[in-house]
Amino acid sequence: MSDAGDGARKPAIKKPKRSLEPRFVGYRGVWVFVEHERGHVHPVSWELIGKGRELADKLQVELAGVVLGGNGAAVRALCDEAVFHGADLCYLMQDEVLLDYRNQPYTKGMASLVDTFQPEVLMLGATTQGRDLAGSVATTLLTGLTADCTGLDIDTSDRTLLSVRPTFGGSLMCTIVNVSTRPQMTTVRPRVMPMPARDAARSGRVIEHPLGLSEAEVVTKVVDFIPDARADKPQLAFADFVVAGGRGLAKPENFELLFDLARELGAEVGASRPAVHANWVETDRQVGQSGKTVRPKLYIAAGISGAVQHRVGMEGADVIVAINNDEKAPIMDFSNYALIGNAAELLPALTEAFRSRIAAARAKKGGAA
Ligand SMILES: Cc1cc2nc3c(=O)[nH]c(=O)nc-3n(C[C@H](O)[C@H](O)[C@H](O)COP(=O)(O)OP(=O)(O)OC[C@H]3O[C@@H](n4cnc5c(N)ncnc54)[C@H](O)[C@@H]3O)c2cc1C
Question: What distance in Å separates the CA atoms of residue 27 and residue 180, rounded to the nearest whole number?
Answer without folding.
Answer: 13
